[in-house]
Amino acid sequence: LFLAVFVDEFTFGFRKMGQGANSLAIWFEKLEDKTIVWSANGDNLAPEGSKIQLTTDGRLVLADPNGRELWSPSPTVAGVAHAAMLDTGKFVLVSQNYVNLWETFSQPTDTILPTQQLDQGTKVNARYSEMNYSTGRFHFKLGDDGNLAFYATSNPFTEEQSLNTMGSSGNMSTLRGQIQVLPWHWAGRCIRQTTGSGACGFNSYCALGDDQRPRCHCPPGYTPLDSTNQMNECREDFVPQSCDGSRPETDQFALHEMLRTNWPRNDYAAQTEDKCREACLADCFCAVAIFGGSGTCYKKNPMEGWILMETRIPLIIIESVLLSSSVFVNLLLLLITYLIYRRFRSRDSKLSRLVQINQATGMQTFTYQELQEATDEFKEELGRGAFGTVYKGVLGSEDTNFVVVKVLATRTGERENEFEREVSAIGQTNHKHLVQLLGFCNEGQHRLLVYEFMSNDTLADFLFGISKPTWYKRIEIAYVRGTRGYLAPEWFKNMPISNKVDVYSFGILLVELICCRKNYEPGAEIEAQIVLVDWVYECYLDGNVLSLMESDEEASNNMRRVRRFVMTTLWCIQEDLALRLAMKKITQMLEGAVEVPVPPFSSSFISSI
């Protein structure tokens, strides 16, 4: 990616916004949270390998690795000869004659900086959420009449929708072909006109709190998409009805009634309440049925704007009365019905968990048959270990998209959701020296992991081969943000798995990086050196850390950092997980940002089994 440019208070460059996603942005470099003040592509994030460049015709273009244009300044400017980042936080494009052609101040996103002017017609958009810099549901701009107007921009407006603006008098105007001026008290109320739109996101409804401020709530069967954002939208806690016609699902849904609530926007024609219910249940796109009492029937999906009358939730309600004289038959039918209900609920719960993993990590879910075909019936074996066998495969029609498929050995007593938690934790790990997890399969007894294929040797070959890496190369590898290496004691003691296992694993990897040898070498000439972590701790207690670096002149000349690394790794490999520090603290100690306290004594895991 394009390297960041730092000028006094501000930095211009790429900011990571999630796994494999980056935004071209400007941010405060010296603030703790690195506050972003401008972003070019919040609505179209750039994948890894993207670059910003000046084209031959003098245009500044942000392009993905395939050359597809993701963003360029608007309006389009050509003849750019230079680009500069100024102390004011402004990024400018300049011609050969040093004439300003374009600047970020003319195309703001969600922030106005000192010395920045807001021209007439220029919009400032609210971000979608605290950490999501895509265009949000509101914006304001300076109108041609000099008034600063606020707009709701969550949805494209049609002739059936309304636009709310604020004039200089503090009144709210509703524009629907004719001007209506309505007084609006600054108590933060929900808009009460039945033609308006509320402040809440999709699938939520607005109600006033005790302080007369709007509160967004989720209807039954829905949960907040982002619990930290009070004005955010809600998502279904169930698998939505399929529209492909592959299975009848009407009997798996029911309508839940809510009084004195409403979502506007009509869709169905006037009819009775029963007909309104039936129409919504039969329509796979319907999420809400709203009966107005006067014969009007409304529906909407996704639910936007206001408040709900009736919403669907996946519920199989048993309402039949068993008239058989046989109590046994009645009980049997109840049992069968309960088992069917449990099966559907278990299936939907699993699908919901898989969706959550996919959303959190961006990983793909594969079927067992797909991975069978990808590996040609697991034909080419690359290696095997205690936890499974690794095969080479190819995804899609292109023969160059190679992957590695690891078939995990079945672990006795492992629960399905435990495997999914572990996959989710691995999937959120991202480091240039770690092979990336692309997806997984969790089907019946089959547990498979899909990794990117790397043609080079492993880290073990790199560290423990004949040609040793330099000390400074090992330092570079050690600066990580979390990894999964050798197993912590919790894996073998039937204890809950937490992120502290990653800290332990990193400690084992770190001690191997320091000494350039494996943690356990039964063939070591000196018995005390068989278990590396035990030997390292003895050297530390004796004040003789230098003996670890006897054959490494480069590291011997940097003993202050070696000692810091050794003390840090001893904190990582504490058998008592309560004593292990958080990975953020470990990273700060490695980088010298904080002092490393004296580590407590703990026998190594290997020597204790």
UniProtKB/TrEMBL annotation:
Keywords for this protein: ATP-binding, Disulfide bond, EGF-like domain, Glycoprotein, Kinase, Membrane, Nucleotide-binding, Receptor, Serine/threonine-protein kinase, Signal, Transferase, Transmembrane, Transmembrane helix
Membrane topology recorded in Swiss-Prot or TrEMBL: Single-pass type I membrane protein
Record-linked InterPro entries: Bulb-type_lectin_dom, Bulb-type_lectin_dom_sf, G-type_lectin_kinases/EP1-like, Kinase-like_dom_sf, Prot_kinase_dom, Protein_kinase_ATP_BS, Ser-Thr/Tyr_kinase_cat_dom
Protein kinase domain segment(s): 376-609
TM annotation in the entry: 321-341
One GO MF term: ATP binding
Residues reported in the UniProt entry to bind ATP: K406
Boundaries of every Bulb-type lectin domain copy: 1-106
Major localization listed first in the record, in broad terms: membrane
Compartment annotation: Membrane
EC number(s) stated in the UniProt entry for this protein: 2.7.11.1
A single Gene Ontology CC term: membrane
Record has Membrane as a keyword: yes
Reaction catalysis annotation: L-threonyl-[protein] + ATP = O-phospho-L-threonyl-[protein] + ADP + H(+); L-seryl-[protein] + ATP = O-phospho-L-seryl-[protein] + ADP + H(+)
Xref: Pfam families: B_lectin (PF01453), PK_Tyr_Ser-Thr (PF07714), Pkinase (PF00069)
Entry protein name: non-specific serine/threonine protein kinase
Natural source organism: Eucalyptus grandis (Flooded gum)
